[in-house]
Amino acid sequence: MLVTGGNRGIGLAIAHAFADSGDRVAITYRSGDPPTGFLAVRCDVTDPDAVNAAFDTVESEHGPVEVLVANAGITRDTLLLRMSEDDWQSVIQTNLTGSFRVAKRAARGMLRLRHGRIVFVSSVVGLLGSAGQVNYAASKSGLVGMARSMARELGSRAITANVVAPGFVETGLTADLPEAKRKEYLRAIPLQRYATTEEIARVVHWVSGADAGYITGAVLPVDGGLGMGH
């Protein structure tokens, strides 16, 4: 299986969840030092040639990718009237087009196998919207339409495509928020806490497994109730 952006945060937790189950796990990373214990391939998902090269490496080492988790993503937060063309394009190119690119490449092998799991990591922001995140919300919302279209195209070959939509998660980013902002966010969450990365990873792992074989085109919220009704 392959996790894009698997070198930290949610992506790394997902990689560990699959490795702990005995799966052979490959991850992509864009910069820095990759974690040990996985087949780590440097890849910028905004570069088509880099994506093809990464898949060639993974397929030569592990065989066809049976489970793809498209997790790589970035933010460039600012208010609409201050949002530059680059702020918009960089987020859309990474979060949405990058996910399309890796899913298309993975689907080749899955079609030959007549089996596969594609999971897109979206966000509650893609369903609720968020001031200062027009670009991010658009990219994460787009994953839903993309997954559902792929579900219809690929379902006859036993390939599922689903979306996991986390809410606020305990990561370095949320830990660095001002205390007043953390409390504001917590008040909006019915469960009154942030998710752990492991909780997100367990849902991704489950929807990729045999028990979820009849689930496709679904959006699975893991947000403590923040986005209920959406």
Defining key terms:
alpha/beta, seven-stranded parallel beta sheet, 8 helices, 7 strands, 14% strand
Describe the structure.
This protein is of the alpha/beta class and 230 residues long. The chain has one domain: Rossmann fold. 46% of the residues lie in helices and 14% in strands. A 7-stranded parallel β-sheet has the order 3-2-1-4-5-6-7, sandwiched between helices. Helix 1 crosses helix 8, helix 2 packs parallel to helix 3 and helix 3 packs parallel to helix 5. The relative contact order is 0.14.
Count the helices. How many? Answer: 8
Q: Considering DSSP H and I runs of 4 or more, what fraction of the residues is helical? A: 40-55%
The CATH architecture can be named as 3-Layer(aba) Sandwich
- The CATH topology assignment is Rossmann fold
| Number of DSSP E strands | 7
Structural class: alpha/beta
Physical arrangement of strands within the biggest beta sheet: 3-2-1-4-5-6-7
How large, in whole angstroms, is the Cα Rg? 17 Å
Domain module count? 1
The CATH H-level superfamily is NAD(P)-binding Rossmann-like Domain
Low-confidence stretches: none
N-to-C CA distance: 30 Å
Strand content: 5-15%
Q: Biggest sheet, open or closed, and with what strands and sense?
A: 7 strands, parallel
